[in-house]
Amino acid sequence: MGQITLSSVTKSFGDVTVIPPLDLRIEDGEFVVFVGPSGCGKSTLLRLIAGLEDTSSGKIAIDGTEATDLPPAKRGLAMVFQSYALYPHMSVRKNIAFPLKMAGLSPEIQAQKVEAAAKVLNLTSYLDRRPGQLSGGQRQRVAIGRAIVREPAAFLFDEPLSNLDASLRVSMRQEISELHQTLKTTMIYVTHDQVEAMTMADKIVVLQAGRIEQVGSPMELYRHPANLFVAGFIGSPKMNFITGAEAAQQGCTTLGVRPEHIDVVEGGPWQGTVGLAEHLGSDTFLKVNVAGVGDLTVRVSGERMLRHGDPVSLAPQPGKLYRFGADGKALA
Amino acid sequence: MATEHSRTAARLMVSPAVILLFLWMIVPLAMTVYFSFLRYNLLMPGMESFTGFDNYYYFLSNSAFMDALVNTLLLVGGVLVITIFGGVALALLLDQPFKGQGIVRIMVIAPFFVMPTVSALVWKNMFMNPVNGMFAHIAKTFGFQPFDFLAHAPLASIILIVAWSWLPFSTLILLTALQSLDQEQMEAAEMDGASWMNRFIYLTVPHLTRSITVVILIQTIFLLSVFAEILVTTNGGPGTASTNIPYLVYAQSLLNYDVGGGSAGGIIAVILANIVAVFLMRMIGKNLET
Q1: CA of B21: how far to CAs of A139, B14, B15, B218, in Å?
Q2: Which among B188, B202, B207 has the least Cβ separation from residue A85?
Q3: How many CB contacts within 8 angstroms connect chain A with chain B?
Q4: What are the residue boundaries of the ABC transporter domain, all occurrences included (chain A) (predicted)?
Q5: A41 touches A209 (CB < 8 A)
Q6: A302 φ, ψ to 5°?
Q7: Does residue A233 sit in helix, strand or coil?
Q8: Distance to chain A for B105, nearest Cα, Å
């Protein structure tokens, strides 16, 4: 259980419209990621679903029941905050038990559920510590534990990994994905990091200025971006955009080609010089200045030892070119 | 990086300030201790003689002493209770967004800037006076007999006056503490199903404990020596109904001209204040640890 429907939901703060009318359907058990640049309204959207903000108009339904005017506690959703929002003066055990205590469950059942949640999250040995004595990753797990015990219809995550360091972020990412596999509960996850979106989501919702730019599975968005914004946002490094004569030749205003879809070959159509080579070991990213086309980012195998100033010849892989019209929309 | 040499230099540099502060404290204290062992009455100058602990004996066995001790504790305790509860309530109100917040917040501090003597006189003459006071007018409007606050409930009236001037202090400290409460925590608790009351009990109150501790410590120090409010309103009376220890010391030394007895009382007050301080630190000092 955990199907959420938004129908023509809007939100304005005073005169500023943060979310113009928006429709979205989240299926039960889905892992949905809201992704977009900062200030695109993704957190606001999540808070509208949570009930922490009131909608200006439109309807929100959870499991088919009207929930627009329900207070947050009555919606059966659990939220993990960016700052974790743990209660600093309570032990981990009390933190996790807090929603159960508020629900008026007996102490025995509380203890039972806390133990179970702690086991799932590997927190058993930390139960009597205070949040201040835990590392960032452990705090994150406590926050998730506090969400799990309520057995909510859906989990809401508000940029939960942004305060962690890079390696911890990768492992927490996997933990959350595994948690989703085990619990099979609907999860809505807000992030500005397209890598998190690509790796975790069943369905990605790309937002810009409160508008949904595209909804789809990660590979769908990668293969068939609906417009320039999605094309540039999904994929790392960013897609190359070529305008001018080269694009006009292909019958479009902007021509897009991903760095991984450009090969360094003898006698390719684009001749250029390497401006910058970033050697990551597994891959090398080249910034190649091509006359008449501009700077292109190219991904080559990590073994290619190219340096600044080396001449290269590039060829885009056939069928991997994206064409966009003057309005930014993808051309069929 | 402090070498032995620079540490010695540092001690040398701070010593003038430390010595000055030490003398400032020790000279009056030593003189008070010295006077407290003398039979020293201002009406009989030049007749001072050593009397041992007689001054202490007379001060402690004076029936007014126990009254004053109880009054002092009641005064401190009563004002603390009013200012803490009232301060939390006012801080919660002022923390809500409303128009003219800035001006209201400044006005709330105002009573703290009014001198104790002035505020006590305003209360005495404009509010509590049984003939011309505001409270008497209100009582008469509703057909009640005006109540002579300072005659019939002198200590309670003084507690009210002192609490009024200290309320802004606790309100301000508690308000800043409230504003530092993480809003995401509140929202998390809201999601967790905590009602307004539960959020207050489980989140706000624990968050405020440290500030409340600070308010209690600071106010206790100042409230133990309340004097001006008593002097200008009740003069410690009727009888000893509103006499606290500082006022008793004043009465002993300046109304009875007994410098020796007054000094003994002063020393006793210092000892009592230290006992209170030790208890306070024991009781709530652990709240100040992280």
Answers
A1: 48, 11, 10, 21
A2: B188
A3: 57
A4: 4-234
A5: yes
A6: -65, -20
A7: helix
A8: 25
Q: Select from A293, A292, A298, A301 the least CA-distant residue to A312.
A: A298
Q: Could you report the predicted ipTM of this complex, rounded to two decimals?
A: 0.79
- Give me Rg for the CA atoms of chain A: 23
Tokens of B201: 């009990």
Using CB atoms within 10 A of its CB, is residue B97 exposed (0-12), middle (13-18) or buried (19+)?
A: exposed
H-type alpha helices, chain A: 42-50, 92-102, 107-120, 136-148, 166-183, 194-200, 218-223, 228-233, 245-249
Residue of A267, A264, A289 whose CA lies nearest to A276:
A289
DSSP state of A268: -
- Burial per residue of A280-311, b for 16 or more beta-carbon CB atoms within 10 angstroms, e otherwise: eeebbbbbbebeebeebbbbbeeeeebeeeee
B150 phi/psi in degrees, rounded to 5? -70, -20
A330 CB near a chain B CB, below 8 Å? no
Domain boundaries A4-231, CATH class: alpha beta
Q: Which fold has domain A238-324?
A: OB fold (Dihydrolipoamide Acetyltransferase, E2P) (2.40.50)
Q: Which residues of A touch B197 (CB under 8 A)?
A: none
Tens digits of residue pLDDT in B150-196:
888 889 999 999 999 999 999 999 999 998 888 888 888 888 888 88
Residue A330's φ and ψ, nearest 5 degrees, are -70, 140
Using a CB-CB cut-off of 8 Å, the residues of chain A touching B207 are 89
Q: Give buried/exposed letters for B183-207 (b at 16+ CB in 10 A, else e).
A: ebbbbbbbbbbbeeeebeebbbeeb
What share of chain B has pLDDT > 70, as a percent? 97
pLDDT digits (tens, 9 = 90+) for B273-284: 888 888 888 877
Instruction: Identify the three-state secondary structure at position B195.
Output: coil
pTM above 0.80, yes or no: no
- Cβ-defined contact of A87 to B192 (cutoff 8 Å): no
The residues near A135 (Cβ < 8 Å, ≥ 6 apart) are none
Q: Does A77 lie at the interface with B, CB-CB under 8 angstroms?
A: yes
> Which residues have a Cβ under 8 Å from the Cβ of A234 and sit 6 or more positions away?
A194, A197, A198, A204, A206, A218, A221, A222, A225
Segments making up each domain of chain A, as ranges: 4-231, 238-324
Contacts of A133 in chain B (CB under 8 A): none
Instruction: For residue A72, give the nearest of B184, B190, B206 by CB distance.
Output: B190
Task: Give the Cα-Cα-Cα angle B267, B273, B279 (nearest 5 degrees).
Answer: 140
